[in-house]
Every structure is written in structure tokens, then in C-alpha cells.
Amino acid sequence: MKKVVLLFFVCILAFASFGFAPAAANTENAELVSGCKAAYLCEWRSGSAVYSKDETKHLPIASMCKIMTLVLCFDEIEKGNLSAEEDISVSETASGMGGSQVFLESGGVYPAGELIKSICIASANDSCVAMAERIAGSEALFVKKMNAMAKELGMDNTVFVNCTGLPDAGQYSCAKDVAIMLSDLLRHEEYFRYSKIWMDEMHHKGGRVTEMANTNKLIRSYQGCDSGKTGYTSEAGFCLAASALRGNLRVVSVVIGAADSKTRFENTKSLFDYAFANYTNKVVLEQKVLTDAVCPVKGGKQKEISVIPERASYIFCSKDDTDNIFYDISIDAVKAPVQKGDTVGRITVYKNNVEADSLAVLANEDAAKSSYLDSLRDAAQNWTL
């Protein structure tokens, strides 16, 4: 069974010449950033590019490398291989890291969650190495995992050499890849427990305390900014990857090689402002029972059951575009028994005749298999004298 539903979203067309392609965005909106080597702006859910400047240029990214370190940490937690409460023993190598740090004690024991928090807030190199050694056995083996994940995510212009972002001629990335990396990190709800903290403390054995202040100042000064990672070395300049959420629209911004700290924050705010002023996520489907489709059940006590999308569907588009958005519902032929939550079909969403989203249709109720007596009863009810 197939059903097609048309939804027309019509807005006043004011900027019809603007497109989603990075090149077009770069040409028309070159004034959005200044004083930096590269920049990138995209919508988080779809990855649609809104703005770019030299987005694939190979550049050092300093501590933004730690985004991948965090990705692997939260992946391990998600898999059940690590918990925030697990005690991590700090090696002499980890405690001796230079640069930004929280001065972990060699041989000291700290909860994994506290180490992860110090990476998110204070960009702690010592905590990065401690977590790398816990997850992979050594920083070198952890870096192999970082590069494998980069390949898996499609980060084609990135090579990691260490887990901290400390200067190394062989380590580089690009604005687009950093956006991909941060977007993946944002999948982890646990990450936001730490990313939004403005100030905190790291407690050491013997009562010593290290004060921590978030290096991403926008979480305090920009409405909706709840995550991100700064970076700075003399080679990389001032860098910032950040994300902001307003309503159902989340955007990801990357600035690399800004001349000073103020410039990276101002450029990021400019990119965020542009996205929220000009773009939206239109709701195509809510996650509720569909009124325009049911699922026939063969051999069931019920002849049909209600269905529901696996999630809501949004389409990212310009507020000023004229869009033809529609979805196609395909329901499978199913046999009883059916359990609530079983996949029974698929919804494909199109924007201007191009596939924009695809999601499963789920059974919203159980359908038990009919018995022999049920079959006799049905036959009797349908018997005509």
C-alpha cells in the first residue's frame, strides 16, 4: 500500500538567489566573517551547509582536536565500556603534559567523568592523555582510533598525530571536517552535562583544588550556545567550533585561524545570527499516530492497526524559499502476530522532488494472531443466507 501526501510550504521569496551549496554561500556572504583563515556553518541534523570559507583547506586546529578525543570517550560510555564513575589512574606521562592542564597528580586517581569534564571546560591536555591511555592503552594507539573514526565520519582532510592538539607538523584538519566531528559529538546527550558548565573545580588528593573556567565564552553570552571547543597555538591562531540551539534549529559553526580571541567569538556570533535570522527547520511530521495511513494485518485478530513514525521529521530550509515538500508512505504486507514498535513500512520525505529524509513506520499497537475459533466466528458473521 502506498500513499502520497503533499505539503506546500510557501513563504515570501526575498533571497531566492541564495543556495545551500557552500560555493554559492561563500560568494554571496563573504562579509559574514573576517580576520580568519577558514570558516564553516551548517545545520546539525541534515549537515546542510549555509556558509563556507576555504572549508577544505588543510590547517592546524590546535585544541579542537580534543573534539575527537571526546567523541571516543562518549562512544565508550555509550557502548558500556566506560562509566563516568570509573576511577582512572593517571600515569606520569599524562600528568607531565604541558599546555592547558588541570595539574593531575602522577599516580592520582580521578573519576572518568571529572577528567572528561575538565577536557570540556578547561581543555585539559593531561586529562586527554589519561583518558586516551585508559581507552586504548597508550596515546599512540588512541590516535589510531581517532584517525579510524575520522575516516568513518568522512573527514577526508584530517590527520591526527596526538589527542591534545599540541603543535605537530603532521597534524591537520579543515573547517568542514571539524564541523562533522562536532556534529557527531552532539549526538551524545551526556556531553551536554559538561559542555554548558561555566565554572567548576577539579579536586585533588590532599585538598588541592584547580579552578576551571570554560574557554568557550559564548555559552554565557550567546543565547542558545550550549557546546563547543576553542583552540589556540601560534601556528593555528585562534579557533572555535561551537553549536547553538534555538527552537528546533541547531547550527554548527567553525572558525579557524582568527587573528585574536575576540575575532573568533565575533565571527561565530555573526554566523549564528545569520543562520537563525534566515533559516528554519520546518516540521513535516510529528511523532504521533498517522491519520492518513494504517497497516493491514493478515491473519490477525485485528484486520488493521494504527502506525506511527519512528521520530519527527524536519526539513531545513531558508525562511524565504518557496518549497514543495511532500512525503510518501509505503506500508508493508504484514502477517500476525505484530508487536508494538515493529517496523511495518517507510516514509520518504522529498523537498523539490529530491529525497530529504527517510524514516521507519512503526506499529503503534499489538496484533495477535487469530485462532481457529476467531476464523469460524468471522466466517459466521460474513455468512449470507
From TrEMBL:
EC number(s) per entry: 3.4.16.4
GO molecular function: serine-type D-Ala-D-Ala carboxypeptidase activity
Record-annotated Peptidase S11 D-Ala-D-Ala carboxypeptidase A C-terminal domain positions: 279-369
Catalysed transformations (reactions): Preferential cleavage: (Ac)2-L-Lys-D-Ala-|-D-Ala. Also transpeptidation of peptidyl-alanyl moieties that are N-acyl substituents of D-alanine
GO terms (BP aspect): cell wall organization; peptidoglycan biosynthetic process; proteolysis; regulation of cell shape
Swiss-Prot/TrEMBL keywords: Carboxypeptidase, Cell shape, Cell wall biogenesis/degradation, Hydrolase, Peptidoglycan synthesis, Protease, Signal
Active site: S63 (acyl-ester intermediate), K66 (proton acceptor), S123
Pfam families linked: PBP5_C, Peptidase_S11
Top-rank lineage group of the source organism: Bacteria
Position of the signal peptide: 1-23
Pathway membership: Cell wall biogenesis; peptidoglycan biosynthesis
Residues binding substrate: K229
InterPro entries linked to this entry: Beta-lactam/transpept-like, Peniciliin-bd_prot_C_sf, Peptidase_S11, Peptidase_S11_C, Peptidase_S11_C_sf, Peptidase_S11_N
Keyword Protease: yes
Similarity section: Belongs to the peptidase S11 family.
Function as written in the Swiss-Prot or TrEMBL entry: Removes C-terminal D-alanyl residues from sugar-peptide cell wall precursors.
Entries under PANTHER family matching the protein: D-ALANYL-D-ALANINE CARBOXYPEPTIDASE, TRAFFICKING PROTEIN PARTICLE COMPLEX SUBUNIT 12
Protein known as: serine-type D-Ala-D-Ala carboxypeptidase
UniProt lineage: Bacteria, Bacillati, Bacillota, Clostridia, Christensenellales
